[in-house]
Amino acid sequence: MTVLELYKHFDNSFPRELSCEWDNDGLMCCPDGEREVKRVLVSLDVTDGAVDKAIEGGFDVILSHHPMIFKGLKAINDEHFISSKAIKLIRAGISVMSFHTRLDAAGGGVNDILAGLLNLKDAVPFGDGIGRIGTLEAPVELFGFAQFVKDTLGAPTVSIADANKAVFKVAVLGGSGKDELSAAVAAGADTYLSGELGHHALTDAPEIGINLIEAGHFYTEAPVCTFLADTLRDLGIESEIFNSNTTKRI
Fold first, then answer.
1. What is the pLDDT of residue 157?
2. Contact at 8 Å (CB) between 95 and 3?
């Protein structure tokens, strides 16, 4: 399978029409579309570490969730950190393909995986089709559910805003979900879980009437890497997952 054939496979599985209008993803870097794909490095982010790993490990493609190029580059030189990465990749003949909000919205993608990990039943889309909302088997108390989230996602910490409600109808959105808080409330969620919600949302949540759990951008989206690696395995392509989390907690 060539680079272009692999991209077409994922592009068909996660079509661009699922992307948010503001998003930029797809085939980020492609020095040779006809290169045979033998090894793929799967990473949530295309960090310097991921690029170096791909070059040193002889990988043909980096497959990521977050786009390597999000805003337009005005120049390609080694003075800008993103264009510098692109230059290194092109020299090494390594392609990068990223699937962002379309992978959030797609069936079986980021948020379906998150809902499944948290045992949500009958999860359906909410918030422009990106997030998911479903129910637990039975109502549980917030702090116990938050601990379950922390343990399940491997997050070092979670932040909680307590609206004094039992947790039963839960909305989830991996990554940054603060813009969909109103949509979660409108969908009837008693609890909303996301990676990033921010100080003001957490402060206002009890007055709004919804529990909030902020579990970390990386930790709410990282499980999709296993899904992507499994998909590559089914295609007969060797892959490895790279941990792109550079945040340290002390």
1. 95
2. yes
Same-domain check for residues 139 and 47: no
CA distances 27 to 6, 67, 70, 168, Å, are 10, 9, 12, 40
Query: Which two tokens mark 232?
Result: 């590559």
pLDDT in tens, 189-202: 999 999 999 999 99
At residue 73 the predicted structure's pLDDT band, cuts being 50, 70 and 90, is confident
pLDDT for 70 equals: 87
Tokens of 182: 């109103």
Classify residue 238: in a domain, yes or no.
no
15 and 31 in one domain?
yes
- Do 119 and 206 fall within a single domain? yes
Domain co-membership, 111 together with 18: no
Residue 157 Rama label (left phi>0; alpha psi -120 to 50; beta): beta
